[in-house]
Amino acid sequence: MEEFIRSIPTAASSPYAFAAYAIAALVFIFAGERIRMAKLLLSRITSIPENERRRALEIATGTMLPTHISPEDWIRHNRMRWLFLLGGAVLIVILTISIIAILNPTKANLEEVKKVTIDSAEQTQAVVRDSGQSTEKKIDSSTETIVTTVQDSALASLETMFPLAVRIDRDVDGTIMRLDGSPRQRLISYDKNYAPMILYWGDRFHYFVFTENNGVSLPSDGVYLEVHGAGSVRRLPLLLNPYSEQEIRIPGSSPEPMEAFLINEVGISGVSLKITVYSADRERGREEFRKALMNTSLDSAARRIYFELSTDGVKLRSAPSMEGAILRTMRKGTYVKIKERTGNNEWCQVRMPEGREGWTKCEMLKPIAP
How many other C-beta atoms are found inside a 10 Å radius of the C-beta of residue 96? Predict the structure, then answer.
């Protein structure tokens, strides 16, 4: 045993040992890069929308991820695998030196061996350090590329959906109902040959109130829209302010049609309602676009170019000035895409979902609400 211990310094400086050092150094460099990349990816993947993380990681690693594991767990699993490889490289060096010491016991100049070993270690350390700095730069660049790629992908998807985000108020049914004092009246459709009016959840029930006797004060409650569907009955209060327009959204979640009635508990007569129903399907494209935009990260480029109008009556002009010809008047809530801004950020060139382009005041735009 004593002779074995004395032989270790010589064995550690033999050509075979240096071959083991070289292999271990390559393993340390290669595995070290992978471990550092895993660490950085794990810390930065949270900045990518959750539904885009798997695709981003596949872009970064050039690997198809298994579907049964999350991107975060896949990164952790691979990091542990490379750590075990590093441990294996250390064991190989120890075993190599031990075998050489056993097979070639000899006395050695310990100081010389020590110097050679230290020089080799310093050289290996320098290589690993330089490689680590280079790896960090590559990872930073790779991360930026990943984020840019994901953002570009999100923008391309939103660009495809944007034409469907047109805000069209198009009626799908309409009628005029006169309150005659009856406690209950079924809604019938003028547009559908006096058939019973059918509503669906999400529909917008728009009504205009007018009276036969001007100035007559009407009760503030007691008149309801009653909808029947999916085994439930709901009453929605109607506001009978003369010559006013009101709108309510039909509640529910079932796709089944619902019958509608006017409930007149206070026996009002001489009041008529002009009713127009707007289908929820007309807003579906806008809703899908809004959801897709909300799924992008807060600092996504998409959040900086897609906006909605904050007020009614916004003018779309042919030039960035008040002298520009008015191309059309836009409604509150209309989605637009900003193509360009003037230097003072006063005017924005926008494109509407239907493709019309023009200029409007930037202050009239606001972020699309979640």
Answer: 21
